[in-house]
Amino acid sequence: MEALLSKTFQNLSKNSIANKMAKKYGLRFGAKRFVAGSNLEQAVDCVRELNSNGMLAMLNYLGEFTNSKTSAAETTEDLLRTLDAIKDHQLNCYLSIKLTSIGLEIGEDVCSENLQRILDKSEATDTFVRLEMEDYSNCQKTLDIFKEMKTKYRNIGTVVQAYLYRTENDINDLNNYNANLRLVKGAYNESSEVAYPNKADVDKNYKNIITTHLLNGNYAGIATHDDDAIRHTIRVAERNEIPKNNFEFQMLHGIRPELQKQLRDEGYKVRVYLPFGNEWFGYFMRRLAERPENLTFVVKNTFKK
Ligand code: FAD
């Protein structure tokens, strides 16, 4: 039953009619639990609320699928507007972006040009920008672009994925750049040629890379909802006298909110990942596909505005 529901949500996430209807009618079906809003204003309100509750935020713009230079340029404009809004509203928030949304798959030159505009603005507004890690085919390109930009810009970081065999080496290489890294387990379906097929190995490697990166002394965003990995981080930090401001916990909006508050109350920095934008429906369906138990929220909220 769970597998069937998961498959249904995966299919719905790609259904063009459902996506069009979702754009027309705005956030529905309890999507607010996972998505900050269908536009920038709603996203700003959501960040404000988090900030007033002692949480940090990061905004991720869910734009149109980018298959042309024009749509990559449009997404870039949306991201520039988001940086302006973060500055204008004095939000404790940064920007998290997918390089494919600004043209990585069209050409590295297109992507670099758009990224430089974003990073110029990030310097001007003193706002951090994180390059997310996508599927394996874009991994090396993302790291190359990150390294090139890191020599010119301060406010930039990227992500590494524990499921990849290469990641321990990448972390040590990125240590030469004093990289601010988000550490994740990894979200894409990768082949066993490049990634650990067993979850237990991914969980083990996740803890290993957390230890390596923290001991390297670079800033870490520990992006997980996994109690075991979180307690491991705290243990490593305490044993090695790593101050609480050298790392932060990051979680998705709407996932384990009680744990987010608990960590905040223990004095840890907690940053919430807030996706927003027109393309909210696909993101929402993917969260349900990941965990069909979240369907309870949909049922409760179907008739609410
Ligand atoms: P899991 O072992 O999957 O889950 C641990 C526990 O967390 C579960 O037992 C459950 O209690 C809870 N949980 C997990 N997911 C859910 C859910 N959907 N609903 C309710 N409870 C849940 N991946 C990338 O590949 N690239 C990225 O750039 C990237 N950025 C991310 C940014 C943030 C802030 C976060 C939190 C994740 C990001 N991810 C990214 C996704 C990540 O790789 C994992 O796929 C995802 O976080 C699930 O793994 P987990 O660490 O939470 O552990």
Structural key phrases:
12 helices; alpha/beta; single chain; 8 strands; TIM Barrel; 305 residues; disordered C terminus; binds flavin-adenine dinucleotide; eight-stranded parallel beta barrel; nucleotide-binding; EC 1.5.5.2
Number of discrete domains: 2
Q: Architecture of the largest domain, CATH level 2?
A: Alpha-Beta Barrel
Q: What is the chain-wise order of helices and strands?
A: HHHEHEHEHEHEHEHEHEHH
| Structural Rg | 19 Å
> Structural class, from helix and strand content?
alpha/beta
At the fold tier of CATH, the topology name of the largest domain is TIM Barrel
Tally of contiguous helical segments? 12
Strand order of the largest sheet: 1-2-3-4-5-6-7-8
Detailed description of the structure:
With 305 residues, this protein is of the alpha/beta class. It folds into 2 domains: 1-35 and 286-305, no CATH class; 42-276, TIM Barrel (Alpha-Beta Barrel), CATH 3.20.20.220. 50% of the residues lie in helices and 13% in strands. The chain is built from 12 helices and 8 strands. Strands 1-2-3-4-5-6-7-8 form an 8-stranded parallel barrel, surrounded by 7 helices. The model is unreliable at 301-305 (pLDDT under 50). Flavin-adenine dinucleotide binds next to strand 4, strand 7 and helix 11.
Summarize the structure.
The protein is of the alpha/beta class and 305 residues long. 50% of the residues lie in helices and 13% in strands. The protein has two domains: 1-35 and 286-305, no CATH class; 42-276, TIM Barrel (Alpha-Beta Barrel).
